[in-house]
Structure formats: C-alpha cells, structure tokens
Amino acid sequence: MKKVCILKRIENTKKENEYYQDTIRNFGGIPLLIDENNLQQLGTCQGILITGGFHKGDLDDYLIEYAICNNLPLLGICQGMQSMALYHTNQKLGKIENHHQKEGYQHEVKLRKSNLSRILGQSKIMVNSYHYEQVKNSKEFEIVGVSRDGVIEAIENPNHRFQIGVQWHPERMLSYDEISKRLFQSFIDSL
C-alpha cells in the first residue's frame, strides 16, 4: 500500500483530520499526518494531500515545492488549492460571500479540457462549498475549473499525471457523489 502525507493544520479539528485520513484509507492508501515536527517522514511518502483550513502556512509552500521537485502526485483541497494557486506569487486572497458553510450540492463547476475533466469524465460537475476566500489567478498551475460566478474552483499541473487542486471538499461528498470517488481513486492510483 502507498503512503500519503497529509498536511495537519493546527486549526483543524480531530474530526476534520479524520475525514482526510479515512478517505485515503478507504481508497487503499496509508495516511500519515505531517507537520513541522515530522517532516523527515516526507521521504517515505508517494503522494501529498494539502488539506483545507483557514490559514496558509509556510508548510504549504514547502510541501508544494517538495511534490514538484520530487515529481509526486499532489492533491490540494480548499485552502490546499488556494495555496497551490498562490505558490510563487504575492497575490492576496479575495473575500467571497456566497460560497461557505453549505452541505450537499451547491453549485456547478465548468471544467476545461484537462487531466481533471478526463479523470472525472465530465465537463460540468456539481460541488459542495465551504470557503470564505477565493484566488484571483494562478501562476504555477493552470486554471481548469470555474463556477458560474467566476470563482476559480480547480487548478492543475498539465505536465504531471496528478497535481490537482480543487476548491470544494470532495472528502465530504463520498457518500453520495461518484465524481468525488473518481478523484480520490485516481489520486491513489497515481502513487
């Protein structure tokens, strides 16, 4: 089984961290929560998951850099996607009012032709929504998904088999959404 390093954000609850760990386990991976105290464990991982949260930290950039330099699969979720978009930029996040604290399907995301649209098998998907901030652009990663109101919802490295960031929370949709299952299965399969 392949090991996935999962960024442990200090602001996330035990339950929030368990969402990510359980998801990786359910799709056949071995989850390893990682923070500044056990970075040496990165060398044992075949992929990196940058989780959602409220604060972009130095560890976000470190893990993105590590994934790029070591050609590792990388999945960013919510704040993780935002960190990927902000990587190597000095842009600031913008506030957004109508995309937070909503369970179930909330809005559509239109996907451009990309690795992500190929993995998901669709050009339009429905997603949940939990974020208060948005990115305005992405430097290192290509924008491949946008909501109807223009919010960037998905980015990727088109030159890598799996380096993808999504603004929504697919780990919270697994009980009812096949698209989310495809995303995680493809991530684990790419390890």
Topology, element by element:
Blueprint: E1 2-7, H1 14-26, E2 29-34, E3 47-50, H2 58-69, E4 74-77, H3 79-86, E5 94-95, E6 102-111, H4 115-120, E7 124-129, E8 133-134, E9 142-147, E10 152-156, E11 163-166, H5 178-189
Parallel strand pairs: 1-2, 1-3, 3-4, 4-11
Antiparallel strand pairs: 5-8, 6-7, 6-9, 9-10, 10-11
Description of the structure:
The chain contains five helices and eleven strands. It is of the alpha/beta class and 191 residues long. A nine-stranded mixed β-sheet has the order 2-1-3-4-11-10-9-6-7, sandwiched between helices. A two-stranded antiparallel sheet has the order 5-8. Strand 1, helix 1 and strand 2 form a beta-alpha-beta unit.
What's the short version?
With 191 residues, the chain is an alpha/beta fold. It has 5 helices and 11 strands; from the N terminus they run E-H-E-E-H-E-H-E-E-H-E-E-E-E-E-H.
